[in-house]
Design goal:
The chain is of the alpha+beta class. The chain is 41% helix and 26% strand. It is elongated, with a radius of gyration of 21 Å.
Amino acid sequence: MKRISSRLTFVHKRVFPVFWFGFLSLFTLVSILGAIAKPESQFIPLIVMPLFMMGFGYFLFKKMIFDLMDEVHDCGETLLIRNSNQEDHIALTNIVNVSYSQFVNPPRVTLLLRENCRFGNEVSFSPPMFLRPDPFAKSPLIEDLIKRIDEKRPK
């Protein structure tokens, strides 16, 4: 059983949002306290902008990060998917398409399934990052997975 998901998923899903919203909340609180202490100053932009950034950040996190699975392991004929306290096995024959986006942060692999699993008909995870001389090269791990899925595909 080989792990094919990034070990940084926990940081992306749980740690970074806490820092993001925590810093913006602290900035907003300091701006509000400054506005109370000195009411004649123009503090409205300093209060509105962090609130806008929180909303925009939440939208981006929801679309790009919060739906990532915590762990994905390659078990040969199946993939073991874990998210929170739930897990499910997905047969390679159940995968219709593999979408790989390497130029987003974090990189993203989305598996489209024939039949729904516990997590729905699409499962997304972040593959491990590799240091390679060619920045446009695809992940060898994901390339291997795509080839194996194609071999298992019913003809």
